[in-house]
Amino acid sequence: MMTTRRISLLLLIVCFLIPPSLATNVTYDGRAIIINGERRVLISGSIHYPRSTPDMWPGLIQKAKEGGLDAIETYIFWNAHEPTKGEYNFTGNLDFIKFIKIVQDAGLYVILRIGPYVCAEWNYGGFPVWLHQIPGIEMRTDNEIFKAEMQNFTTLIVNMVKNEDLFASQGGPIIISQIENEYGNIMDKYGSAGKRYIQWCANMAESLNVGVPWVMCQQEDAPSPMINTCNGFYCHKFTPNRPTSPKLWTENWTGWFQGWGQSKPHRPVEDIAYAVAYFFASGGTLQNYYMYHGGTNFGRTSGGPYIVTSYDYDAPLDEYGNIRQPKWGHLKQLHDVIKIMEKILVYGVANTTNLGDGLAVTKYIANGISAGCFLINANQSSDINATYNGKTYFVPSKSISVLSNCEKEVYNTAKVNAPTNLIVTTPTESIFNWQWRPENIKDTLHEKGSFSNNSLLEQIMTTGDTSDYLWYMTSIDLSKFHQYWSKKMKLHVNTKGHIIHAFVNKHFIGSQYAVNGKYEFEFEQTTKMRKGHNYISLLSATNGLANYGAYFDLQRVGIDGGPVKLIGYGNATINLTSNTWTYKIGLNGEDEQLYLPSQQQKIKWFSDHLPINRPLTWYKTLFEVPEGNDTLVLDLQGMGKGYAWVNGQSIGRYWPSFIADDKGCEPCDYRQEYDSNKCRTDCGKPSQRWYHVPRYFTTKGPNTLILFEDFGGDISKISLQKVSIESIS
Ligand code: GAL
To answer: Which whole-number Å values give the CA distances from 539 to 444, 452, 457, 536, in the listed order?
Structure first.
C-alpha cells in the first residue's frame, strides 16, 4: 500500500517529468521563427494598450485578427507604470496583463517589447523623470545606477508576466520579447561604454529565462542569441547579422506621427503592400505594422516635444479603432495570399530571375512541386506587360504581383479593390453651459513661490515633470539703476522652450512659443517699468519631453541659465540672470485639482461674463452623452492651447490654434520612394481639431468637462460630435 505522502511525491515527480502540455515551443533558424517545430510566416501589428481604453481592446484585437494578423506587438511604458519611484500603477488602460490576456483569448500571439526605453513618441521615451533626478545616473549606457534601475523594472515586468503564465514557454501567447530599442542608431555616441551596455542588456535579458527568443531592433552588433531586426519603411534589403538568425521586421511604419504645427502624414497602401510583399519575397518571416492602431496620447503622455494628442498614425485602424479603408482591406487581402503560400515560403527554395526592364520574378519551390511567384516591377515610372511562362501579366509600375502556383495572379500591390471609406463627424445634441474661473495667479504675480535660487534653473530637473508649468519670479528695484531707467524698457528672455507667458508688475505682457522645431527662442517685449520696485513673473511651459536621439534625456528645457535682461535707456542692459529667482512648480488649479469631480463642492465657478480669449482660464460644463456606441470627439476649433478632462480623466493636451504648415501637401504618388514628408494633408488647417472622448471615461448621468486654456480661446464654439464612417466606393 502506498502512503498518501508517497502518492504526492510520485505525482510531483510525474509533474516535473511531463513537460507542460500547453507550452508552445518557440525557436528559430536562419530561415524562420519556428513554433512547435514548424517554420512560420507571421504578420503582426502594434497596438499600444495605454493609447486606447480597456473597453476598446477586444474590438481592436478582433479587427486585427480579421485583418489577417497573427500577433500583436506592444511596448511596456515604464513612466506610466511607475510615475513615482516604487509606486506602481497597472490599472485601467495600464493593465497590460489584461491586454495580453485579451490577445490570447482571441487566439493571437504577442510580441512584448519591454524596452524599457521605447521611443514611441511617448513622453521622455518611456523613462520616468525621477530616474533623471538620481545623482550620478547616466541613461542607456554602462552606468551601474541606470543598469540597476533598468534591471529592476525589466525583472518586475517579466515576473508579472511569468506569474500569469503568459510566455509561450508557459503556454501563454508571448512568442518574442524585445530588450532596448534602436540603440544601434545612436550607439557610437556612447563610445565603448555603449558597446558594453548592449552586451549587458543581452546578458541581463537572457538571465531572465523567459523561454522565448529575444530581439534587439536596429542593432547590427546584437550579441548572440539576440536576433537583430529591421525597422523602416522598407526592409527587403535587410539581412540579420548572423546566418542563423531569421529576417524579422519589427516596425513597418504604416504612416507617421504628427507634430503641432505640422500637416497630417499618410502612407499610401500601395506602397505599404509593395514593401510587405517585397519583404516576404526576399526571405522575410515576420513583419509587424507600426502602428496597426495608433490611438491617442491621453494625459501628458505625448513626447516629442510637440507631438500632437492624436497618435492616429494613418494606421489600418484609425485613432478611434474604426477600420480605415482601403488600407485595412488591401493589406488583409495580401495577408490572405501570403498565408496560402506560407509553407512554400518558409520551406521552399527561392530563385530570382531578371526579366529585363527592371522586372524580376522570384520563384519559390517546395518539395519540387508546389510553387509561388512574386513578379516584381521595381520601375517607379513604367507599367509593364510582362510575359512569364507564356502568359502575360499587367504589372503597374512599382508593384508586385503574387502568382499562385506561379500561374494565376491572385494579388497585385497597386491594384486596390478594397472599398474606400471616410470619417465623418456630426454634432450631437449635447449642450454645454459653460462656467469659468481664472487661474489664481495672485501669489506668483507677487513673487510668492516655494523656493528660491540665485540662478535660472533647468525646468525638467526642477519640476521632475510633475507639471508642464514652472513659474520663474524675481523683482528689481530700478531706483538703484536710475541711469538705465526709462518709462518703457524691454524685457528680454532667452529660453530653451517650449512656451512662455510673461507678466510685469502684475500685468500680462505677452506669450511666445517655439516654432519650426526650434525649441530655443528669445522673447522680447517692451513694457512699462516703475522707477522703484518691479515684479517680473515668467510662466514657462513644456509640451512633451524629448523621446529620441543620443542623450535625449539630457535635453534642457525652460529658462535654464537665461539670460533674462532688461534693456533700458540708451540700450543699457541690466542682467537679471543671477538675481534671486523664486520658483513655483505647477499651477494653483493643478494643486487644487480643479479638474476632479470630487473637488467641485469646494470650488467656486462663475456663470456670468464668460470670457473670450482670456489667457490662463479654467472652464467647466456638465453634459450628457448620446446613447449608443458611436465614437465621441470634442471639436475644439476656436480654442487656443490647453488641457481637457472628462470626469477627471485627462483626454490630453489640445492646441487647435496651432495651424499646420504648408509642407508635404503636394499630390501624392505612391510610386515614389516614401518618406514621412510626402503625401501629407490638411496643410493650413489646425494640426488637431478633434479630440477623442472615450466612452470609457463617460457615464450615463451628467458628465463633467473641464478645460484649462493657456493662451485664450472662444469657448462658445466647442461642440461634442459623433464619428461615423461613410463608404465612398
Ligand atoms: C522608431 C521607434 C518607434 C517610433 C518610430 C516612429 O524609431 O522605434 O518607437 O518612435 O520610430 O514612429
So the answer is: 9, 15, 13, 10
Q: Which tens digit of pLDDT belongs to each residue from 39-91? A: 999 999 999 999 999 999 999 999 999 999 999 999 999 999 999 999 999 99
| Protein residue with least CA distance to atom 9, ligand 1 | 120
pLDDT digits 0-9 by tens, 611-657:
999 999 999 999 999 999 999 999 999 999 999 999 999 999 999 99
634 C-beta neighbours (distance < 10 Å), count: 24
Mutate to test the pocket of ligand 1, among 121, 217, 256 (most ligand atoms within 8 A of CB): 121
Tell me which amino acid residue 78 is: W
Phi, psi of 249 (to 5 degrees): -125, 100
Work out the widest C-alpha separation in the chain, in whole angstroms.
Answer: 109
Stretch (H or E) spanning 160: helix 144-163
Q: Cite the beta strand spans of 180-275 per DSSP E.
A: 214-217, 227-232, 247-253
Among 485, 479, 486, 476, residue whose Cα is nearest residue 564: 476
What backbone torsions phi and psi does residue 640 show, to the nearest 5 degrees?
-85, -95
The pair phi, psi for residue 65, each rounded to 5°, is -65, -45
Grid coordinates in use for 20? Answer: 507542460
Residue with CA at minimum distance from ligand 1 atom 3: 120
The response to whether residue 302 sits with its C-beta less than 6 Å from ligand 1 reads: no
